[in-house]
Design brief:
330 residues, alpha/beta, globular
């Protein structure tokens, strides 16, 4: 089975990794003056990831650059602005999110200086957090909120403390009218909001702009959206699923949905067979151990059932030649 975080990652990267859809998403939620100050036609994705390896299962990141609009003819060219979009996949907010973001932003700046050794400054970074956990976001959104100082001295210390505010998008707490749009990013937001509730088709059906977005999306985007639904709604009847896409989106989407659902179903059956074979091999080994050396202890049973496949294969091959159980397992 796919880990659920990998399923969320796949949709996030497939949809928001497209510059056009990432731009549509950002413009929908940013300050209007900031939106007007940027030349969105220059938005492009910057390769790389800046998160900690140990947190890869809960954080997924994307980086984009965009030029400032309206630089004067005699004005020195500025560094492009950077938008760092971090998806938070955990069920509850990360209490130290501003601290993590500061670390990731420093990595972005450090890489920029390595690539531009003559730079006299660094680009502006706008950190955006896309959160879709069931618990409302209650953690800090400003770095200064993490700094433990007496409240009476906060203004005095502020000038000596790093400060920034992340752009928080707490998807499940946002109204559908704000999330939905006629582009693929709107569909992804609605899916993130209603994932796992068993009502996703009804929610999609109730939002005309979402159906427009589905029909106008590229085949690649449609596939990512449909696969997400299949993987996060395992109880969904395939007949109901196919009928919905045939009626609401079109016959091509229906065929795509049926094909993806069948492929994922076959993956599950294959994984089930592999797990069954793997467990069967271990049980067979324990029976042979009992015949050769006497009933195995609880510790031996635990070790065999938890062993790697290659160890089980090796023990099977060496069973007849081993003089003792200890020699076999060690």
């Amino acid at each position: 089975m796919f880990p659920m975080t990998s399923v969320h990652d796949a949709l996030f990267k497939s949809v928001f990794g497209q510059s056009a859809l990432a731009g549509a998403h950002l413009r929908r939620f940013l300050n209007a003056d900031l939106v007007d100050a940027l030349a969105w036609e220059t938005l492009e994705r910057v390769p790389g990831s800046f998160t900690d390896d140990l947190l890869g299962e809960r954080h997924t990141d994307l980086l984009f650059s965009v030029q400032w609009r309206g630089e004067g003819e005699g004005e020195a060219s500025r560094e492009p602005a950077l938008f760092y979009i971090l998806a938070e996949h955990q069920s509850r907010p990360d209490a130290m999110m501003p601290m993590r973001l500061l670390r990731y932003m420093l990595r972005i700046w450090e890489r920029h200086l390595v690539e531009h050794p003559n730079a006299r400054g660094v680009p502006a970074i706008f950190p955006v957090v896309v959160y879709h956990g069931p618990e409302p976001w209650s953690a800090a959104t400003r770095f200064s909120e993490l700094v433990d100082i007496p409240s009476a001295l906060r203004d005095l210390v502020a000038a000596h403390t790093p400060e920034f505010e992340l752009v928080l998008q707490d998807i499940p707490r946002m109204p559908d009218r704000l999330l939905a749009s006629e582009t693929g990013d709107g569909v992804a937001r609605i899916l993130f909001k209603y994932v796992g509730r068993g009502e996703i088709l009804q929610r999609l059906d109730a939002l005309p702009e979402i159906l427009v977005a589905f029909r106008s999306a590229s085949l690649l985007t449609q596939a990512a959206l449909i696969e997400y639904i299949v993987r996060t709604e395992p109880a969904l009847e395939r007949r109901e699923f196919a009928e919905f896409f045939d009626r609401a989106v079109g016959s091509e989407a229906k065929e795509l949905a049926v094909t993806l659902a069948e492929r994922i179903h076959q993956e599950g059956r294959q994984e089930g067979r592999q797990e069954g074979v793997s467990e069967g091999q271990r049980l067979a080994l324990l029976k042979l151990i009992a015949l050769r050396f006497g009933a195995p202890t609880a510790a031996v049973k635990t070790r065999v059932m938890a062993a790697a496949d290659e160890d089980v294969d090796r023990w099977m091959a060496a069973l007849l030649d081993a003089e003792t159980l200890e020699a076999l397992l060690n």
